[in-house]
Design a protein that fits this description.
The protein has 187 residues and is mostly helical. The chain has 7 helices and 5 strands.
């Protein structure tokens, strides 16, 4: 067994990653004992056109228990839960080990408060620009979720816009401080 270098928690920015590729890498690291947080799941990409993926999701929505639909399968509409369910399908979630692995995963739309000040990672093997040929079609998970019943896209967009403004202000201040420090060292 190889020794794994564990960071306390890995924070992954889901933007522009392919759904299945990112989910498989996250599932593997969860099973190895790593804590993983995935933010901006509404920006995750799926290969194939929106029309094709919508047809596939509507096929999934048709699958239900005839005698009592409340028994399952449950059809999640939010991008975070869609991603979570994709990861669940890649873990042995009916065993104690798989349940412990899933407990180490957190998924969010947007970037909520404690994580907006932390360093976010990307997974190069799962990036759309690396995996998908430039002429291939893809769709965004947030748009697909909206088409199948997710109602909070506008809210998340508003919160993200305000976060980006605050982040830009912080970065400008940080650059000014760094420049002043460099000038002080030079003088």
């Amino acid at each position: 067994r190889r020794a794994v270098n564990m960071v306390k928690t890995v924070l992954i920015d889901g933007r522009a990653h392919l759904l299945g590729r990112l989910a498989s890498i996250v599932a593997k690291s969860l099973l190895e004992g790593q804590h993983v947080v995935v933010v901006r799941t509404e920006e995750i990409n799926i290969s194939g056109s929106l029309y094709r993926n919508k047809l596939k999701y509507h096929e999934f929505l048709r699958k239900r228990c005839n005698t009592g639909p409340w028994r399952g399968p449950y059809h999640f509409r939010s991008p975070a839960r869609i991603f979570w369910r994709t990861v669940r399908g890649m873990t042995p979630h009916k065993t104690a080990r798989g349940q412990a692995a899933l407990a180490r995963l957190k998924v969010f739309e947007g970037i909520p408060a404690p994580f907006d000040k932390m360093k976010r990672m990307v997974v190069p093997q799962a990036l759309r620009v690396v995996c998908l040929k430039p002429d291939r079609q893809f769709c965004v998970l947030g748009r697909l979720a909206t088409e199948v019943g997710w109602k909070h896209r506008d809210l998340i967009q508003r919160l993200e816009d305000s976060r980006k403004v605050a982040s830009a202000a912080f970065y400008a201040e940080k650059k000014a401080k760094t420049l002043a420090r460099e000038q002080a060292k030079a003088a």
